[in-house]
Amino acid sequence: MSSDFEAYEQDFGTITAEITNKIGRIPKLSGEEKTQLVLNVDKQLEEVRELLEQMDLEVREIPIQSRAMYNSRLKSYKQEMEKLEKDFKRSRIAYSDEVRNELLGDDAGSSESQLIKLREERAHLLDNTEKLERSSRRLEAGYQIAVETEQVGQEILANLHSDREKIQRARERLRETDANLGKSSRILTGICDLLVKFLLVRTI
Predict the structure, then answer these.
(1) Which of 34, 49, 111, 137 could cross-link 29 (Cys pair, CB 3.0–4.6 Å)?
(2) Counted domains in the chain
(3) CB 22 within 8 Å of CB 76
(4) Residue 198 falls within a domain, yes or no?
């Protein structure tokens, strides 16, 4: 299981490095070229989300005593993913000075305040969206913890049931042993009685 997790880690590192590079290029582009790069990054981010889901499933299959280490690594990857998504959203509304001047033309000076206002509004919208996403992730994490807790509880109940059956079997064997000892005791008592009678007869 750990080998599969490590393979996913390598894929995660490769794809996120490509995404980081592309996010840095987005503000320098405009028009169709920028749109295509944004779509490409969005697709790669979806691949990373799927990788994280696979890694999450792998961690659940790892024995409990080794799970903490992998959970810690997975948590750091999820945090890195959150940062990438945040940087990506900002890059989509950001423009380099060269691109901004090209878009605004001669009205660059007069439209600067409008552009700043638009950025602020978009940043505020992105901030609210990120808050909703964080709340959703916290709910999902809570659900996963509940599922894992239920699984651990089921394992404990199964172990208790198994122990109970072992104790019951041990008690049954003990009862059988007691019964056999009682039977043996009666047989020995009978033999002793016969010997006593035999000795009495010989004495007479």
Answers:
(1) 34
(2) 2
(3) no
(4) yes
For the domain that residue 30 is a member of, what is the CATH number? 1.20.58.400
Is the pLDDT confidence value at 106 over 50? no
Closest CA to 61 of 109, 3, 100: 3
Could you tell me if 53 and 146 lie in one domain? no
Report, as an integer, the average pLDDT of 77-98.
Answer: 82
Geometric angle at alpha carbon 196, from 195 and 197, rounded to 5°: 90
Which residue, 72, 94, 116, sits at the end of a domain?
Answer: 94
Element counts in the chain: helices (H) and strands (E) = 5, 0
**Domain that includes residue 54, residue range:** 1-94
Among 51, 67, 47, 46, smallest CA distance to 2 is for 67
Residue 173 lies in a domain: yes
Question: pTM to 2 decimals?
Answer: 0.50
Assess contact for 58 and 4: CB atoms under 8 A. yes
For the chain, the average pLDDT equals 80
Distance CA 81, CA 123 (A): 19
Specify whether the CB–CB gap between 112 and 90 falls below 8 A.
no
Mean pLDDT for the stretch of residues 82-89: 92
Q: Is residue 99 part of a domain?
A: no
